[in-house]
Design a protein that fits this description.
Number of domains: 2
Pfam families: GST_C_2 (PF13410), GST_N_2 (PF13409)
Structural class: alpha+beta
GO molecular function, one term: transferase activity
Number of strands: 4
Helix content: 40-55%
Low-confidence stretches: 1-14
Oligomer: single chain
Strand content: 5-15%
Shape: globular
Protein name: Glutathione S-transferase family protein
Largest sheet: 4 strands, mixed
CATH topology of the largest domain: Glutathione S-transferase Yfyf (Class Pi), Chain A, domain 2
InterPro entries: Glutathione-S-Trfase_C_sf, Glutathione_S-Trfase_N, Thioredoxin-like_sf
Keywords: Transferase
């Protein structure tokens, strides 16, 4: 039996879609998880790129002028950028299980997605600030990041305790799970589980999903 994972990464021309990604990017992992959840992962060639990339990728720049990861090239050649857009496209292609139909459930799911996406943006900025020389770091900015993270995690704990987070499994739950996994990957010292038992239980369930196991974060 062929190793589909290796073929998928090694021979892009044999696959219908291409995804420019990094195994360190939470937004890229989110998209690849959706591909697994919708059963489309065997149709997507993963084109790994380092972050930052020392040499510009001509094909990525041609598809997406800002060269942002992740970027998907659909089977008709259309370039699709921004992880929420790519996720909804793949979900539609795969039968529509992660994005609820218009109504209260959809707005709740999209709200959780937006909160988790916003936190992932903050975490990337936070990490960039921490990589600066200590004398150049902004204590005010670091305190702002920490405060926003704690407040947002407390909000998610309330939602998880009330049954709103993880009641089914939608795009909001998936994005929250990826964000928490990124916290474990890059900010393990934060100990986010302390005092948040419902959210920790949700994350244990998320981490056991086959799609989460198949897409674990890794250094390039």
């Amino acid at each position: 039996m062929r190793d589909k994972r290796n073929v998928r990464r090694g021979n892009p021309e044999a696959w219908a879609m291409k995804l420019f990604w990094s195994s360190r990017s939470p937004f890229a992992r989110k998209v690849v998880m959706v591909a697994h959840e919708t059963g489309l992962h065997d149709r997507v060639a993963l084109i790994p790129l380092p972050i930052p990339s020392p040499v510009p990728c001509v094909e990525l720049h041609r598809a997406n002028p800002i060269a942002k990861l992740p970027t998907l090239i659909a089977d008709d050649g259309t370039a699709i950028a921004d992880s929420p857009v790519i996720c909804e496209y793949l979900d539609h292609l795969g039968g529509g299980s992660l994005f609820p139909v218009p109504g209260p459930a959809r707005w709740r799911a999209l709200g959780r997605q937006a909160l988790a996406d916003g936190l992932m943006d903050q975490l990337l900025l936070w990490r960039a600030e921490l990589r600066r020389a200590e004398a150049c770091r902004s204590a005010t900015l670091l305190a702002t990041f920490a405060g926003r993270l704690d407040a947002s995690l407390d909000r998610l704990e309330e939602q998880a305790a009330g049954g709103a987070c993880g009641a089914g499994f939608d795009i909001g739950d998936l994005t929250v799970g990826v964000m928490l996994a990124y916290l474990d990957f890059r900010f393990a010292e934060r100990g986010w589980r302390d005092g948040r038992p419902a959210l920790a239980k949700f994350q244990d369930s998320f981490a056991a999903r086959p799609s989460a196991i198949a897409t674990a974060f890794a250094e390039n």
